């Protein structure tokens, strides 16, 4: 009997301490802001980073699930509880703190979710972008975290940066950049083609699916030609980067279509159910050697 | 109720404890570290612990008999509770921090073999992992 297995993922890369220093990091502007201990919000193409005294205290990205998703998806907290805390405080960081004070979640759960969400969103914020980032200086409105947010006078400015005290462990820019580089490296080692990261995912036509891990199977169950990795992460309440790891492993195993035949977004709202593209003839080949060679070619082209 | 650092400091109070860390085993990121690190580098130790934890969590052979491996909706994630490694001078205990948070975090305790009590450490680490996330 021939057992088909997914190829084992490559070893996790170790952060290189010297990397990034000579090159000025991923975002020269961010490096400069850290050096001048700036406070404010950096808006980049794929997300925003909040700084306080040059340290990163908050990050958000449309590509990564927020604190609310992580806290409510696994039974730690009911969605109603979160909604009530958010309504009472007006901002996710304060809502989290309020839930801890009320004994609804442990400090450990909040810290785990905050820290993981920050690294997760920062990965996308620091992604290569085609437009320059913009920084808005702004002092935290509420440095000690005790004032009632409803009593904060409307200053006319946009929302202030999250105060440093609400993040239990503000992160140095250099540490965040190093981790982001390491994560890119990890994904690249698994499968060098980044197309499945953002495109709607489709299952490739193949005869024998390999043995999958439970986490991969839950991801694969949601692949329908419409959802992206981000959509799936949000539905499962998982970190977006973790889902990208699973998606790239599935792509490397040949289970997911690498995304060459991504359908354009539908022109008419009534046609929004996109049928799966017809299976490509080359993938219908029953000869495993041919399939392997095609995948190898795809991977090499993507390098 | 402890936060991450309090949880790690509590683990360090176990007899023989040399170092403790909380590691995300999908990315290999150390979410918190206290004390010494095996091999002298916390970040490298975290990625190595993550490799080990991931392998154990993903192999069907290490899951319990009644684990519905094919059914993603049921069963605990991950199916493994903890991992133990011993060598000439130390023990390592890795405890999975339950499914209540993405199921991808492990608590890693490094114990000196002469002073460490493996049975006690295993029980206490289980309690700490539960209390870390469950209110």
UniProtKB/TrEMBL annotation, chain A:
Q: For bias kind Pro residues, which ranges apply?
A: 1-12
Instruction: Map out region (Disordered) in residue numbers.
Output: 1-27, 136-162
Low complexity bias locations? 138-162
**Protein name, UniProt field:** Transcriptional regulator
Annotated organism of origin? Streptomyces doudnae
Automatic annotation (TrEMBL), chain B:
Q: Quick one: where's region Disordered?
A: 60-80
This chain's protein is named Roadblock/LAMTOR2 domain-containing protein
Organism the protein comes from: Streptomyces doudnae
